[in-house]
Amino acid sequence: MTNSQRPLKSDVAKSFAAAAQDYDDVAVLQRQTADELLDRLSLVTLQPHTILDLGCGTGRNLSLLQQRYPDARLLAADIAPAMLIKARHNWQSHLGFKRWWPGAARPLFIGADAERLPLSDQSVDLIFANLALQWCDVASVFAELRRVLKPEGLLSFTTLGPDTLKELRTAWAAVDEYPHINVFLDMHDVGSAMSAVGFNDIVLDVEYQQLGYPSAMQMMRDLKLLGAHNINPGRRKSLTGKQRLQQVIAECEQFRINGQLPASYEVIYGHAFAGETQGRSTLAGAEVLIPVETISRR
């Protein structure tokens, strides 16, 4: 993804701020990938003191991280202030009356761009980033995450690959030449960027997932409610005409399977360690360390 293809951070923040209220109603993929990412943490012998939930959204994963690591301090960062307000409210609801107890856990909620975190060097043991990094410049964000991780610290993340929403992308391409689907990075580019800034023991793999929708309009509505609608810099600025929209809907029909329109997602899972490997917490044996140059899809 070139700089000209990357969405403006102000557009990203506005998009997700607008989505905060209804986000949890449609965040099916986000829950699935978060749960898988949390499961993968069980394969790593790590007891973090400080955890950063980067791109925390409505805070759904904060309680799950707290349950897994009850003694850790939680930092919750998001670029959209409305998401942080929602996350704080959800955390208080999670605690119930316990939030009034002395010593009750209270995450620190931080409004921040992932490429410029207001955190000290080497201050975090674990960065958990579920479907947040795809909005960033890949070189800048991995350099920043490497900066704030302590030696022996772990980055565990998901992001999206270029086959994401390929059906909707194909449908729009048949109608006009404007970009309508956000551009995502190939796994090889992700791995190369991580290696370039000094991450060690990089492990990446791809899973393909599909969500089904009764109509193209429902699919596009859910994307808007997620804050994941088109924010490409080169997008058409005027409203999409009714005729053009009907053409897209018609083009989508070629993909219908068993009464449903598929929305495909290429989900990249990754983790890597900062610092030297000697003495570092190790994997429990169920993962394989893969050199970046040998990475392939499966």
Structural features, described:
Helix content is 35%, strand content 20%. The chain has 298 residues and is an alpha/beta fold. The model is unreliable at 277-298 (pLDDT under 50). Strand 1 (50-54), helix 4 (60-68) and strand 2 (73-78) form a beta-alpha-beta unit. Helix 6 crosses helix 8 (187-196) and helix 7 packs across helix 10 (242-252). The chain has a domain at 9-160 and 184-208 and 266-294: 3-Layer(aba) Sandwich (Rossmann fold). It has a 7-stranded mixed beta sheet, sandwiched between helices. It is built from 10 helices and 7 strands. The longest helix has 15 residues, at 81-95. The protein has helices at 9-19, 23-26, 28-41, 60-68, 81-95, 138-148, 166-173, 187-196, 216-226, 242-252, and strands at residues 50-54, 73-78, 108-111, 124-130, 149-160, 200-213, 261-273.
Summarize the structure.
The chain is α/β, with parallel strands linked by helices and 298 residues long.
List keywords for this structure.
alpha/beta; globular; 10 helices; disordered C terminus; single chain; Rossmann fold; 298 residues; 7-stranded mixed β-sheet
> Looking at the structure, what is the overall shape?
globular
Which oligomerization state do the chains in this entry correspond to?
Answer: single chain
Radius of gyration using CA atoms only: 20 Å
Number of helices: 10
Instruction: Could you tell me the CATH topology label of the domain at 9-160 and 184-208 and 266-294.
Output: Rossmann fold
Query: What is the CATH architecture descriptor of the domain at 9-160 and 184-208 and 266-294?
Result: 3-Layer(aba) Sandwich
Main sheet record: 7 strands, mixed
In order across it, which strands form the biggest sheet?
3-2-1-4-5-7-6
Uncertain runs are 277-298
* Order of helical and strand elements: HHHEHEHEEHEHHEHHE
Question: pLDDT average, as an integer?
Answer: 84
Task: Supply the helix-strand structural class.
Answer: alpha/beta
The CATH class of the domain at 9-160 and 184-208 and 266-294 is: Alpha Beta
Query: Which percent bin holds the helix content?
Result: 25-40%
**Beta-strand percent range:** 15-25%
Counting DSSP E segments of at least 2 residues, the number of strands comes to: 7
Annotated CATH homologous superfamily of the domain at 9-160 and 184-208 and 266-294: Vaccinia Virus protein VP39
* Amino- and carboxy-terminal Cα gap: 22 Å
